[in-house]
Amino acid sequence: MAEIKIENLKYRYPDTKELALDGITCDIKPGEFIGVIGRNGSGKSTFCQSLIGLVPNFYRGAYGGKVFIDDIEVRNVEVDELCQKVGMVFQNPFNQVTGSKLTVYEEIAFGLENFGIPRNEMKKRIDDALELLDIAKYRDRAPFDLSGGQMQRMAIASIIAMNPEIIVLDEPTSQLDPQGSEEVFKAVAKLSEKGITVIMVEHKIEKIAAYSDRIMLLDGGKLVAFDTPQEIFAREDLAEHGVVAPVYTRICKDLGLRVPGTDYYPVTLDEAHKLLACK
Amino acid sequence: MNTIEIKNLHFSYNAGEEILKGLNLTIDERSTAIIGQNGAGKTTFVKLLKGLLRPTEGQILFNGQDISKQTVATLAKDIGLIFQNPNDQIFKNTVLDEVMFGPMQIGMSKDKAKEVALKALDMVGLKGTEKINPYDLGLSERKMVSIAAIVAMDTKVVIFDEPTIAQDYMGKKRIQAIMKELQRQHKIVISILHDMDFVAETFDRAIVFAKGDALLDGDVKSVFKEKDILEKAYLEQPYTMQLCYELGYKEAFLNPEDFVAYKKANQ
């Protein structure tokens, strides 16, 4: 159960002029499911990397402010110390897969072996992760023989097996078929129910609206808003920040239908259905 | 009119594990989306269309000619494929060199290649990035470089493998505009996609792949009405259609604008 505290985080990549992150301050409670949205280049992936310490410890560059995971200040520890507490699933599974393992099973075992997890414990964790991501049937396949979607689920499984307290996912479902993507959201939501903090970058706005407790809206490296999906998608300035509200919100807004007793428009299929069914 | 006829197409990577099991289709100038579960054989299918893989049985005829009798280099003039992962496609040190490479390989002069490359880069929104190393760009922009590289070749067929990966709303709108422009030029546009709303808004026809065959094939509206079959293929309806279905409407709408117009007209 880890808490994240970010104070005025600023960061600029080496040899660039503009800040990739510009004065981000926020607190994230243990077990929260946080969606991160924003146009391409808004700082979403950089923000993710600042939580696991790749920013600034791997990429270097100019860094200001503080990121705390509980009482650990991220910049003061090595990435390998932090990665048992914070797991990160990359946007592109090719960037994550070791390339040195012959089977999916061994690939998932890799991280655990590096941390000397006892054999029986390791087996259990791998089996659970294979099951959770529905890839047990590919356990003996070569990682690079998998389709893009299967490989992404293997990448997620290899992180989940590490039992992190925080899991950061950078567009983990972009290569998955619709149901595969829904399964990942459900699996990640289960982790969040268990008390694992989830930070998930996504362009699938309907899904992020349905699953997130709170949503961060980033633009130009700044945190424009950090609030519930209902508050975020009721904003009038979304287009200025390069994002669009969920289909259900847009439909209800165009029809002037707010959730009764609130200033919000529905953000999910269920909410829109209830409201429209009464009409 | 350009056509691709697929006759009894079989393919397997390993003996005994058939990925495509006797596919029969004709693809014409209606824009075609290929949808289906991960591992259904979609990418394998488009690699066969491009000639990168050869059928284990059956034929692919482009405008009546069997493509298996042509080399990949010859086919490159007619059929362009934008890879799912731009890193598999991009290898030059600058964006401009990358986009000029294809046109020069199919016989364009350096000046002509530069002209078409600059036009294609403008089309994908990357004007001004000519001298940058593609690997210094983010994934979404690198994907746009890979699109420009194929668009610049002016092939009769343009195949996209999951073009919307990593794209934000504006990026998707841009890709949609590129696809519509290619259709206007009477090119065959084929795309593998996992974004059902994008399919509903952009394509004329959808083919659902499942277990190595075409499970459903028709105009997008008729395909997306088949909720139960879609679910078996690990797909789902576009969001607006899901809402219509939940509400028990007989009429199914593919996008929010049509739904709202219908509601307003019937209030």
From TrEMBL, chain A:
What is the originating organism of this protein?
Dorea hominis
In which family does this protein belong, per the annotation?
Answer: Belongs to the ABC transporter superfamily.
Where it sits in the cell: the answer is:
Cell membrane
The topology of this chain with respect to the membrane is: Peripheral membrane protein
Spell out the protein name for this chain: ATP-binding cassette domain-containing protein
Q: Which residues does the UniProt record annotate as the domain ABC transporter?
A: 4-245
Under the heading InterPro entries, the entry gives: AAA+_ATPase (IPR003593), ABC_transporter-like_ATP-bd (IPR003439), ABC_transporter-like_CS (IPR017871), ABC_transpr_CbiO/EcfA_su (IPR015856), ECF_ABC_transporter_ATP-bd (IPR050095), P-loop_NTPase (IPR027417)
One Pfam short name: ABC_tran
What are the transmembrane regions? Answer: none
Q: Which UniProt keywords apply?
A: ATP-binding, Cell membrane, Membrane, Nucleotide-binding, Translocase, Transport
The superkingdom of the source organism is Bacteria
Q: Which GO terms describe its molecular function?
A: ATP binding
Main subcellular location: membrane
From TrEMBL, chain B:
- GO MF entries: ATP binding
InterPro entries from the xrefs? Answer: AAA+_ATPase, ABC_transporter-like_ATP-bd, ABC_transpr_CbiO/EcfA_su, ECF_ABC_transporter_ATP-bd, P-loop_NTPase
Question: What keywords are assigned to this protein?
Answer: ATP-binding, Cell membrane, Membrane, Nucleotide-binding, Translocase, Transport
> Which residues are in coiled coils?
none
Q: Report the CDD domains cross-referenced here.
A: ABC_cobalt_CbiO_domain1
Q: Sorted alphabetically, which PANTHER family does this protein's record hold?
A: ENERGY-COUPLING FACTOR TRANSPORTER ATP-BINDING PROTEIN ECFA1 (PTHR43553:SF24), HEAVY METAL TRANSPORTER (PTHR43553)
* Entry similarity comment: Belongs to the ABC transporter superfamily.
The chain positions of domain ABC transporter read: 4-236
The protein's name: ABC transporter ATP-binding protein
Q: What is the organism of origin for this protein?
A: Dorea hominis
